[in-house]
Amino acid sequence: xxxxxxxxxxxxxxxxxxxxxxxxxxxxxxxxxxxxxxxxxxxxxxxxxxxxxxxxxxxxxxxxxxxxxxxxxxxxxxxxxxxxxxxxxxxxxxxxxxxxxxxxxxxxxxxx
Length: 112
Prior knowledge:
Elements: H1 6-16, H2 21-28, H3 31-35, H4 46-58, H5 67-83, H6 98-105
Helix pairs in contact: 1-5, 2-4, 4-5, 4-6
């Protein structure tokens, strides 16, 4: 059993997920999205892979979520806690920052 409160992480996930499925899907198709973040061995970035799995989660009903989906949701909420922290936010040129691109890969548009 996972060591987190599913209802709490679901609430936080829903609060921070401010991109529609269409917006996230469109964003994930861009070269900027594909190149934002740390690259894995297969050439895809960690955030881009996460975005693809988040999109699949967002297309499911809550009752259809698997333990793997819940683990991804928990990880995503953790990323939000880390990245949305004011100390992580760039002081200027947010729209063209890796910080912004990374958050969008995880389904959060910081400029909304």
